[in-house]
Every structure is written in structure tokens, then in C-alpha cells.
């Protein structure tokens, strides 16, 4: 009954109650994913121009922006003209928050949101129904790619309230939602040596087709499985991690532990459903929903090189984010000629631009720099690649924190210290039973507050 309700009733009811069009959008996306590049770009550019026309007429911030820069819609004729539009930074978005809201907004057809605030004060958001429809449709198209169906039984390893006295009304509502969506929630904020075996038993008993959750929680579960030679009695068809950057060693560890494929995804609060992993290399960009640019430090297109991500949400007319720099960096990938899917590819999301560590020569690196070192040193044994966190307050000096319940053996310590010494003047390697998370419960590999000297 739960599967029937989730697969055949939940989405139509959701569309009816919320006045969205998820199912219709999903049908459209299942067709557009096979369009050739020329048709994709033409469709995307037409949506960009419509959004821009609306924003210039109805959004105070963009109306003034175009006047101040002596721009009109006629000045944007081709893709290359888009860079005439100044970039919207997080700082500007916070300062101009209310002026980003359209003055012809239909408040009944909007949903309020907020960014996580991981890299600064939270940003208040508004999403209209068209934006929500495309966001969810792209998410369910991803289910097609993973061989799943909307409504399949799944486990969500997620943050839940940790207070002791949760109101009965909340408990009842949560139970109804779990039944309705055919899911079970495991509290990712309460995973330790005592609770992990219980959580694994709950997962096995529920027999989910799909498991979705925080990457940090998956790593905890996977390390327990491998280190204790735990034999899972049930193997899910697929898993997907979110909220944190998925580095190759952790993907390898989790897939080994759960004996299934782990799929990646990428989005942000300002524009969800940006790119999804289909299991054949890279993340397919939802180009029907967002326009993604990658530029270098000089504002020039980065090509296939690493650069800053600039995002335009093509569907949110309530609060448009046009050429928005969300703080992430990444790089494009080559088109997969063997795939039927013709969408462009985001090869890798490397991390937040603020989440960088400064080497002794002044170079800045992301967390992938450290996972590459660990992978090279300890590739023969994935369980040796412990979860880590790098803390820096001065360039060239770091505290490298390793999550382990036992002290590091001398060989491991010496190898790691020797490798890091090539890049840093001062290194402190410490062992911690559990690495700290931020207030939202998310884990950050890089904690940097460098002061240039």
C-alpha cells in the first residue's frame, strides 16, 4: 500500500495542493535530455532572455542595474553578450535581498527558503511554483538514470530534532509523512559506536531500494562496516550523498562497504537541481533549468579549467538570481559521446572558494589536494584513508585533524607528515575520535581563517 500511494498518488496530490506541474515538467525533461547541443542552447538562451526581460521590468535590483550600466535587453543578443551583465555576489544578494523580489509576485504561488549559512549569514530566498516544479522534475528524472522510480522505498540519513521532548503532534506528522513518502529517516546527528549497529539493523529491516543522506554520515557507517567486517544482509540498488563534496576515496570506501553504486549530485539553495550523476562519468547539468558558467579570477571563461561557478536560475521569476556567484568552484567535462543523454557535463565540483588552504608558496588548494595525497599514500587500503579536517589561521601552517578512535601508528604518521612537509612550514597532526561539524550539522573538510602576513 505504501509503495502504491507513493508512486501513484503522492506526486499528483502534491501538484494539486501546491499548484505545481512536476509531472508535466518531468515528461518534458525526459524528452529534452536527448536534444542535440544546438537545440539545447537555443532553448536555454530563449529562457534566459525571457527571465531577463521580466527582471528588468519587474525586479528593482535588475532595473537599476541595467540603467546604471547603460544596458538594455537588446544588448544581449548572443551567449557572449551575457558577460556584460555584472555578477551577483552573495554580499550583494544579502544587501539587496528585498530588491531582488519581483514587484508583481503572486505570494500564493511562492515558497520561502533560506540558505544554510555555512559561509556567512543565511540568505532569505523565495521560489515560485515553476521553479519548484522544474527542481523536483529534474530530481525525479535523476531517478530514471539510477534505475529507480518515484515512490520506491528509501532511507534518508538526515538531521532530525535532537531535543528530548518532541511534541506528540510533530511525531504524528512525521510518521504520516514517512508512510506517505514510503521512507524511513535515520538521525545523522546521533551516529556513534552504540547507535551505528542499531541504524544498520533498521536499514536492513526496512529494505530500502535507495539510501540518501549526508556524506559524513555515510562515511561513519561505511567505516564501521569495513572495520568490523559487518556483513549486510540487504544491498540497496543505489545510494546518493549530499551537502558535502564527494571526494574519490570516500566514494570508493562507501561503495565497498554497501556493495552498491554511490551517485553524486549538485545544487544550492538559490538554484536547486543543478547537476546529477548518471553513473557514466561526471554530472549532467540540468541546462533546461539553469545556465552555468565557469570563469577564472579575471572573469574570463575558464574552458575546461577550474574556475568560479556562476549560476542563473532560469525558472525563478519571484526572486531571480542572474549570473550569481555562489562561492563554489569546479570545472566542465567533455561530452560523453557514448551516452544517449546529451546534456553538458560538470566534471567536478571542487568546493567553496572560501574553503581553501594556503601553501607555503602562496598557492591555494581545495580539499581534493589532501585526498589526492592520502590516496597516493594509502591507496592499498581504503580504510586507512581516514576522514580528515584541515584547520588554518596562517598561510603555510596547518593543523591536520584525523578522525580515528585509536592513535595513528608511527608509520602512518611519518608518511603523512613527510608528504605534508613538502607544502607547509608548520604541521600539527592530531587524532580526534569525532571531527566537529558546523551548527547545521554539516561537516566541512576545510576550516580556513587565514590572515595574510
Strand order within the widest beta sheet: 8-9-10-14-13-12-11
Q: What is the global morphology? A: globular
Q: Could you tell me how far the N terminus lies from the C terminus, measured between alpha carbons in angstroms?
A: 64 Å
Residue runs with pLDDT of under 50 for 5 or more positions: none
Overall mean pLDDT: 87
What does this structure look like?
The chain is 34% helix and 23% strand. The chain is α/β, with parallel strands linked by helices and 453 residues long. Strands 8-9-10-14-13-12-11 form a 7-stranded antiparallel β-sheet, covered by helices on one side. β3 (154-158), α8 and β4 (183-187) form a beta-alpha-beta unit. α3 crosses α7 (129-146), α4 (37-58) packs across α5 and α10 packs across α11 (248-258). The radius of gyration is 23 Å and the shape is globular.
Key traits:
7-stranded antiparallel β-sheet; alpha/beta; 453 residues; globular; 20 strands; 5-stranded parallel β-sheet; 13 helices
Task: Produce a short descriptive summary.
The chain is of the alpha/beta class.
SSE map:
Elements: H1 2-8, H2 10-18, H3 22-32, H4 37-58, H5 60-68, H6 90-95, E1 110-114, E2 124-128, H7 129-146, E3 154-158, H8 168-180, E4 183-187, H9 195-206, E5 210-214, H10 215-227, E6 238-242, H11 248-258, E7 261-263, E8 265-268, E9 271-277, E10 283-285, E11 290-295, E12 307-313, E13 324-333, E14 345-352, E15 357-358, E16 364-365, H12 367-378, E17 388-394, E18 397-403, H13 410-420, E19 426-432, E20 446-448
